[in-house]
Amino acid sequence: MVEYRKKSSLFINKLNNLRIKQKLALIQIFCVLLPLLITDSVIVLLIVDEEKRATVQEMDNIAESVKYTVSSSIDNALLLMNNIYTNRFVNEFLNMEFTSPGDYYDKYTDFIKDSLYAVGVSSNRYNAVIYGDNDGIVNGGYFQRLEMIENAWWYDEFLENDKGVTIFSDYVNMGANNTRTISIVRHLDHYNKGKGKSVLKIDLDYSGMAMDIVNGRNSAIFYVCDGDRILFSNEGKGGRHMPFENISEQLISKAGIHNTINIYKKTWDIYVMTPKVDSKAVLLKNAPLIGSLICVNVILPFLVMGLINRSFTQRISELDKVFGDEGADELKQLPEVQGNDEISALMASYNRMAHRINELIEKEYKNRLRSQEIDIARQNAELLALHSQINPHFLFNALESIRMHSVLKKEFETADMVQKLALMERQNVDWGDDMVCLRDEVEFVEAYLELQKYRFGAKLSYDINVDEECLDYRLPKLSLVTFVENACVHGMENKTLGSWIFVRIYKQDDMLTVEIEDTGHGMNEEQSRIILEEMRNVSLDKLKESSHVGILNAALRLKMASRDKVVFEIDSEAWAGTMITIRFPLDELTKINKTEQT
Fold first, then answer.
1. Angle at 143 between CA 98 and CA 177, to 5 degrees
2. Given 254, 298, 354, 458, which residue has the most CB atoms within 10 angstroms?
């Protein structure tokens, strides 16, 4: 480790002694030319490898395409088979008693007409035949007697395997010509719970399937096989009237992709042959690109690096000269900045820095102190203005006169109300300290609500729920009662039915949360949005122009007390009620100490 550090230090010292031009030459060789030559070689290999991967992907796409085409044809046949299997009219027809061929023909005609069976099974792609065990059936049309297939190999295999639904591939005599067939067979035992012997056989249109599969414009040779029997291929392994050929193990070994189609315990294999990838042809195909890369990577870097070297050294010398000058009182600026690159930006930044530092020395400190003094004075003036709005000392004399007048008239309940109101006002409008503990504010809210019950009687009910751990936090005086008063005045004054007011205070996620909810008139969405926007953006100037002075006054004082970190939310519905939520960050609130509690 020590030896490595010595060698690296020696190498760095040698680099430090080189000029920028020499360093740029080293960068060009070791960081441009060599990496590019290596990269070009890797690109060539990647091109060949990508061609191989593309070939594999193409083969996989061919296998999936063939699988989808075959599965779609078989699924459609299975859908037709299921429709026939569950057809009640078919079951009833198979169980009818036919007294004669003429009787069978009449009932067969009625069945075709009433059940619309012919419409359901008519298709150029499928041929459906039902082999019934009813002795009255006359062979022909859509129905034949079961004895017609009792010696067929596929029927014997179908009975032996007992698979329910079985798919066969065969080369059979179909009238004048032998032909390839793909058939699906099952018992028609839906209505007799597995006891029926009737058999439904659906022959798929082999030519149509082969055309759909082969016409996919596939670039690789593929085979679809049932065991070792080649059912379909785009290599031309026989036509519709040619016997099936067998696939060899040698041919299977050349397959690049092997996929399967699973149909009711029957598995068909899909083999996609790997086409040959000619590496030389790939390279010749991309020769212009590779040649261009080599030329650009060798010649162009030399030319560009020389220009870059000149651009670097000239302007860095100018910066070095400026930084070398030592000014006694101020920093000197560059006389001219050329270009728009990072060095030019550095030169321009130096000029701005020098200008700002020189300006800061002269003015910035004094201006900042003066600005802070003005800001503090403005906040104090705003606070005093807010105090004056809710400090109605003149009200006390008026309340006392009203109380005495009520006593003289022997209206003692009214006098008691006025007296409580006066005592409450005298206790809480002393602005010696704008911040009070939440315990006192809650007591004031409760006293206010008790006074309102004198006025509204049974129409007003309230519930105050405050977590004990929240009571010692400080809030601006008369802030919460303003929102409670708003709930009483605007929420229930004109409401004939009784209303509730809920006050909930609790901690949640490092926030002190206050909820004031009423079941009064409520507001529509537009009214709620306007009031909430006024609360969030309230200022002293806006307060003078607004009609919602009470709650905006409280909102402004809460914003000032929390350094504008308080969060307001309004949830209201017309004729249902309103809930105002106020959240304070706990780190912006203080608690009363034990001395103050005493």
1. 140
2. 354
Please classify residue 299 by burial: count the beta carbons closer than 10 Å to its beta carbon, then call 0-12 exposed, 13-18 middle and 19+ buried. exposed
What is the side-by-side strand order in the sheet with 229-233? 245-246, 229-233, 222-226, 266-273, 255-263
The one-letter amino acid at 200: L
What are the structure tokens assigned to 282, written together? 């790939």
Backbone angles phi, psi at 237, to 5 degrees: -80, 65
CATH 3.40.50.1970 fits 434-597, yes or no: no
Residue spans per domain, the chain: 434-597
Phi, psi of 533 (to 5 degrees): -65, -40
pTM of the model: 0.43
Interatomic CA distance for residues 252 and 258, integer angstroms: 9
* pLDDT > 50? residue 419: yes
Rounded-to-integer distance, Cα 92 and Cα 115, Å: 11
- Report DSSP letters for 351-379, one per residue: HHHHHHHHHIIIIIHHHHHHHHHHHHHHH
- Looking only at the bridges linking them, the beta strands covering 567-573 and 499-508 are unpaired
Give residue 188's region: left, alpha or beta (phi > 0; psi -120 to 50).
beta
**Tens of pLDDT, residues 176-225:** 678 888 888 988 888 876 667 889 888 888 888 888 887 766 778 889 99
Contact 512, 480 (CB under 8 A): no
pLDDT-based confidence at residue 91 (cuts at 50, 70, 90)? confident
Residue type at position 175: G
Cα separation, 487 vs 500, in Å, equals 10
Q: Which amino acid would we find at residue 140?
A: G
